[in-house]
Amino acid sequence: MAKGNWKKFPHADKAYTYEAAALKKNWERLHRGDRESFPDNEQVQQAWRLYHQGEFQAACELGLSLGLPGYAVANKAATIYATYLEDNEKKKLALFEEAAARGEEQMAKMPKYPNAYYFHALALGRYSQGISVAKALAQGLGTKVRDALTQALRLNPDHADAHIALGAFHAEVISKVGAMVGGLTYGAKKDAAVEHYEKALKLNPDSAIARIEYANGLVMLFGESKMKQAEKLYREAASCKPVDAMEHLDVALAKSELEE
Predict the structure, then answer these.
(1) Is 116:106 a contact under the CB 8 Å cutoff?
(2) H/E/C letters for each residue in the chain?
(3) Contact between residue 210 and residue 217 where contact means Cβ atoms under 8 Å apart
């Protein structure tokens, strides 16, 4: 794991602490996006508690200490932390790379587990954005992201977060290489992007990140003509009620974008 201390989540809130039975009671809402099943292993439960309250480094370290059963929480903690809180570009990319590699190992060893593919794709997608989408496409990373997300959805068609990520894949590819090359080379289509975003919102109507990514995708795909709809989605995202640290960071992002 990338060395050094991780930054603290700056918005600690007792509301994000799901002690004892509270974790299971709130699990469906907390995991409506990634469709993770409630774990039997108590240490894995504890790692998820740490994750939801914003103790990302502790969640990642505990998850890693548990081997494959802890990879999902470790990978999500590392990826969310790197996306929102890590300023050092080199360290950020290292965290994404390591999470993507662990996801690849999990895909090979747990081929029927949707989140092996999803968290691999999430980390690899963020890594791709970090090095530039054009460079990532040239390295063949775009195809890997697309294939992993497609498999996650094959295993669980109601995986809201995988729909968001696949919508973003279509939008980013078309934005970088154009609709014709994007369609012929990567199977990227504008209407497919919109369908995935809409499906994600239907599956997870309280999601701020679904709205943020949908808004970004609309601007990438349609420019000024969809600006009003994008702004409306951002306003909706900013007024979502977060139930954990990640959602707090999503909502804060929407608010900061509206202020600019």
Answers:
(1) yes
(2) CCCCCCCCCCCCCHHHCCCCCHHHHHHHHHCCCCCCCCCCCHHHHHHHHHHHCCCHHHHHHHHHHCCHHHHHHHHHHHHHHHHHCCCCHHHHHHHHHHHHHHHHHHHHHCCCCHHHHHHHHHHHHHHHHHHCHHHHHHCCHHHHHHHHHHHHHHHCCCCHHHHHHHHHHHHHHHHHHCHHHHHHHHCCCHHHHHHHHHHHHHHCCCCHHHHHHHHHHHHHHHHHHHHHHHHHHHHHHHCCCCCCHHHHHHHHHHHHHHHC
(3) no
pLDDT tens readout for residues 85-99: 999 999 999 999 999
* Cβ count within 10 A of residue 32: 18
pLDDT at 143: 86
**Whole-number Å distance between alpha carbons of 103 and 160:** 19
Q: Which residues of the chain are modeled with pLDDT < 50?
A: none
CA 130 to chain centre: 14
Q: Which residue has the tokens 């970090």?
A: 130
The first and second tokens of residue 18, run together, are 């799901």
Task: Provide the CB-side half-sphere exposure for 249 (13 A, CA).
Answer: 20
- Residue 187 pLDDT: 63
Say what the pTM is.
0.93
What local confidence, expressed as pLDDT, does residue 138 receive?
75
Which domains, from first to last, does the chain contain? 14-259 (1.25.40.10)
Cα separation, 19 vs 27, whole angstroms: 12
Residue 69: phi, psi to the nearest 5?
Answer: -60, -20
